[in-house]
């Protein structure tokens, strides 16, 4: 570090050198840390801040470069700044008669648990403590200050154990016959100081407690810098994905005292209510106390408003400070202050943490108050804020005191507590009996969907964030943890072992979908709500965004729910799910989940039970014989088709499926009433539909007259080494064109029926897994000939589009050719990610976490985020961009959307906006997140260009 | 078709209208067909060709456009041309006294089995036959001609059954009491004509045999055009991948007769010996005979040279024709001629078919004779010509008379005949006993490699051309058929059913790897050889090419063999194969296979047996206890590593593998002596190494002390849904960096040992499956630090390179970044194809054939070729090209090669040349094909640019 460079910045008496280091608040925070920037800000605004200086982040970097040492250059700057403080305060640092005392506090750009926070009263030693006693005429105050300093320095800066000194304090009170610290007199405190110093020396290889104030200061600053790399701090940054910070700053500030009698006091406050967001001054304070007393909770603090009565002058000044800071920062602030003998001092100012409800309330109110523009309000909301409004959350205290037995991959946020079952069938049975169940499986398959419905949470031993379990659960907003490799499930004994624990069917577990943690027992949950301000903010977002938001929905009921969430159409309707499931059953669960959001409730865990039972009763209702038979019938029809020998038999089996599909489509078209619906033709490999057990084989054999052995042989033949790269998608309709015929007939007939009933319909038929223009054109021609014939014969007016899914690299590479025969593209980024990265989402759990975790956490930091969660913009994104550009080079009005999981992830949605997509589509519960991200992208666009956000190319 | 357009072209008396339709031979052939172009050519050259005219390919297209009818415009042109012929010959078509008779022959640009070939004597009817009898004073000749015409027209043009008329002829001879056709007198022949006409009328719904010569002509021309779409012709074009032809031409030509007594004759000849390629006039002829008599083999033809004695004038003229045509076409020609009363007529001239040996002999001789340049000689060879030199071939006659039970995918050419076994172990046991065995499996896995070695051919029920079985077999040049879905294998009963046939262990089957056909029983095979001319031509190829050719080889013995095949280095050395196998065992087979090529043998099947036994004895020798234990030891060591709990135990297990690997590398470096060797670090997913049965588990348990249950659990955990996209390649070394340490240590230590022994070494360490710069740089840094340390400590001088395999789309997309840390790229186009197309090579068998087969053959014609066989230049090729350009944008001297299966396929090698690769690498047996293709690419380049072929960027 060059000696000439200024890295330590003074603040005091209305002047703050730190204000000139950068133009914006955000930039200043990166240099001075949050606390340093706030102190500079408050000082410059003329607020009463005790003078001091900020040792900037650059010095932290330098500290590590020097091998955990402060350079002489830095020390020199600190001495110079200390001289300025001394001059302002009229005191000397280390003076034996009237010492200048300082606090030393850390302050990174973001506050961070695990870092060393504060050392108070630094500058005291065996001599100056006596001077202080004389000067204040308060030996008790002086020795208490020294006692606290030694204690804090020894433990916080030097890392000695806390308990021994706490024990000495305890013994002193016992000896003195008193109960509380303040009752201890000066003698006892002086004696404690000696005990503490001896303890220090005993544990520091004979070094005595430093008496040189600068030695104390170097030690404290070094301790702050050192704590930047403490395990807890590193872990926190990893969890919170903080990777743009280079270190922490250190603030050295003149001590002020709230414990100088009844004209003194201290407090912590928020400029608005952090729980509700109401525009009221909110906080706690104590008279004759130091800041740590408020936090420690030894004395019960007063409400802030009480201060107005006891110290009206200081309170009035504080209220002015509140208004000033909100106007300055345009956000709710978290403040710390001390009143020393009626004089107010501001010690800290930072953006305040708040509940999800308060996030929306404050943002919406500030727009009304004209503190914020709509753009600024919308830009401030995060996708996590929205998630917190929709999912039940684990009570943090309950979690802390419980036994965590394993951690998997946090696939769907929220929390769920219930009895463990190991099969889908048992999940359904127990749910029928009114139990809340968690379905625990090695992995789930489409055959488990009924049981997944019935369960309130899902836990699997394998799979990643886009495995079957995760994708299905996400569609329902149902808590789900996957890839929990510690589970050792034994289906025969209906139990599992996890480490040394054994969990049997019926035992309670609690899942935290936010963290992936699995807890023993039934833990308390907090239920969410959506306040009116949420609707206000989302309205602003909708006004601002230019990209449309659709949903992925397979049933009329999904479709209806998605519309409630703000969806403007269906971007992906998977037709094969229709073969598996009765919508009536899904309805029950869907209604239950949505009801949670629409009703206003603030019940605790106790109230969840009857509600879940109500949901369970809903399921019971639809599990009539008829419904069950209905599912069976569908399933058998498709199985019949698969084993059918020859075209004619296959056509017969398909004819049985036609009415089911048509009815589904009629329902969906009616629900969407004029909004576009993108329907994907059959996609999964046929073996996903085959019977999995002897009973299933026997049933199928009875219907088809084909021997069980032959059926088994056929099913075996369908086995694939790499099903992801196998006989699926449009490859099925190339080999079995009659499947395409059946599905197009169902879609077009449903559209005709709806059109005749006055419902507006706009089906977009989507052919999946294309890799070649000719492959696609064969199917487009076939579908068009059939559809046009049906429409003509029915004398109906039905418009439809035919497009394709771009989900294989080759399709993106050859998009110019493919667009010649496709009217729209929908990027299937789940599969595109798998193939572009050569990464199976179901298998990646074994190594992908190491790729994503950073080095400090034992990972390799290769990826910034899980590419299945947030689009890999460098690689997959390049293909998507190329695909859009090439596609529009041959078809100018090509409509382009995305229907992978990424369509509901904030950063990915912004990317989709940037590269000119017409819409994104995501699961119903991600629709609000997509709406918000789309708006934020448009805002950023506008800001960057200084002109209105560019509209995506016009198309229907 | 516009009436004004000339589509029928006259030839005769030195003038050929067809010569002006295009400038080059090749273009003329596309318009006039091969036969028509040859006739025009010979006519224009002044050779004696009976006059006639060619109805061009455009008329064939028109015929189909008109709904299988000749347009009046075409008929009008034909009449006009017939008038010209009449004028030249002084005869009238259909004249009752002296009729002009013509032949009608098909002639596409390529000769094609299945198409209608010839109708002779057209123009005869009940009246003119009498006129002909009088005019020639030879009623027998006239009625025989008429009899033949009715017979040919009925069967060939009208499609009536052949047998009934053959029976009538047979009965006539019986009745006449004679043995041969020529003995039948005019009366019998006249009676036969009547019988034939009645048969015609009976089978043509009462229509009598056409008497109008033009009606005959329209019928014959229509029949030729119709035969273009006959099943056999369509099938042939599909098999031969002929898709640039639009139809066939028809040639109508004046009849000449070789059966006009002893001054007449006919013959078929080649301008050089089609079997050996010797420069001698080669052919057969008959005096007083018609062309079909030579072919039918009723009379034994004379050698061509005999003609010089009997008809010296005609023979002398024929010898001049021979010289003229070879000079003109610069290739060996296949000629048909007729001598009518001492006058020579040329009826056909086309490029002659020849054996593989003759291909090389003729090409090499013509360079010496200065008929061809080296470029022209090399450009003329095809990859199939080379294959035919190296693989045993099924005797065509033997195949015809045998029972074909199934057809699979022709993975590796050649042929093999042996006893069926169903497990690798039994293959080894029976081979030990001296049996030739065919290994039949559902699919093969690395554990089967021993048995695959021992077998002389491999047949699998599943998989495609790049499945495990195919890839391994190809490396050894061993006949292999995969994806033979008709096989229903029952390992318990050691038998399989194929349709209604049951084949038990020990039964004989014969595989034709060229076609994929499987035959019952033990069929005769033809053994190949490489003549000296092969070496000459390959020398020319090596002089001409600019791209290097390396080989994929995993053992010293593979490496040695590859050098014999002309390899200039190793482009892919897969280290994991070393874990499975003793090279000693592979040696035996390798030596055996190579020996076949190096010895000159022309033995028939009988001679194969003792040779194969010799090979089998070789294997027996290396299956000593020690060798077997050696394999076991290796296998157990790696299994131990996989189940090892914790880093230290894993390191212990790895330490056991180190000496094996190092020894392997020492052998390879020594064999390559200075040639570059690209060594790929471990690539396959770990589960490929795990024990597959209880016995294996028990052994591993004994060594490691880990319980069998735990081992099984660990193996289960390793199971993947899509192993292709799973935990493999460099992902293994990211999660287990100690594997990289072990392998790099083995490579560098081996290099040090070799360098100190005076062997030149240039290891190129290749990290597979990269998708990211950081992922790669972590491993490059680790490897470099380790390698440099070892070299320094040993005070050795060893240079090495570190590069990566580009085999995942993302790596190609981000190649500019990746090249910053990679010194070379090797494109792994097998996996790149799988991921770019989303196509598993192991599963594609169920639908890919439909994508490749054309519409006429029940396919969809989506791909021109199997993308696993011939690089998909549009899609995968785009990525490869992009990868090279991006890579060289950040590292100018980036060395680039290919090591997928495509590196040994002709079209793909040419593409690699075009996009500027430095080398291709392929299995040893494909090396000559790659050398040839590389030379042809350079030649084409030179021709296109009119300047020397561009050299690839220089690098080592």
What does this structure look like?
2 copies of one chain form a homodimer. Helix content of chain A is 48%, strand content 15%. Chain A has 956 residues and is of the alpha/beta class. In chain A, α13 (356-368) crosses α20 (532-544), α20 crosses α38 (927-945) and α23 packs antiparallel against α24. The two termini of chain A are 59 Å apart.
CA-based gyration radius of chain A = 33 Å
Helicity range of the residues of chain A? 40-55%
Low-confidence stretches of chain A: 580-630, 948-956
What characteristic shape of chain A results from the CA principal axes?
elongated
Most strands sheet of chain A: 8 strands, mixed
Which properties best describe this structure?
homodimer; 956 residues; 8-stranded parallel barrel; 38 helices; 32 strands; 15% strand; disordered C terminus
Strand-helix topology:
Two copies of one chain form a homodimer.
Chain A: E1 8-12, E2 15-16, H1 25-44, E3 52-55, H2 57-65, H3 72-89, E4 102-107, E5 118-122, H4 128-136, H5 139-157, H6 163-176, H7 186-203, H8 213-227, H9 231-239, E6 249-254, E7 265-270, E8 282-287, H10 291-296, E9 302-303, H11 304-310, H12 312-329, E10 333-340, E11 343-351, H13 356-368, H14 374-380, H15 383-390, E12 393-394, H16 396-400, E13 404-407, E14 409-412, E15 415-421, H17 424-432, E16 437-441, H18 449-454, E17 457-460, H19 468-476, E18 480-482, E19 487-490, E20 495-498, E21 501-504, E22 508-512, E23 517-520, E24 525-526, H20 532-544, E25 548-552, H21 556-564, E26 570-574, H22 577-580, H23 583-598, H24 605-622, H25 625-643, H26 647-672, E27 677-680, H27 694-704, H28 708-717, H29 730-735, H30 737-756, E28 763-767, H31 773-794, E29 801-806, H32 809-813, H33 815-819, E30 824-827, H34 829-837, H35 848-852, H36 876-890, E31 895-898, H37 906-914, E32 919-922, H38 927-945
Parallel strand pairs in A: 15-16, 16-17, 17-18, 25-26, 25-32, 26-27, 27-28, 28-29, 29-30, 30-31, 31-32
Antiparallel strand pairs in A: 1-2, 1-3, 3-6, 4-5, 4-6, 7-8, 7-10, 8-9, 10-11, 12-24, 13-23, 14-18, 15-22, 19-20, 20-21, 22-23
Helix pairs in contact in A: 4-5, 5-7, 6-7, 11-12, 13-14, 13-15, 13-20, 14-20, 20-38, 21-23, 21-26, 23-24, 25-26, 25-27, 26-30, 30-31, 37-38
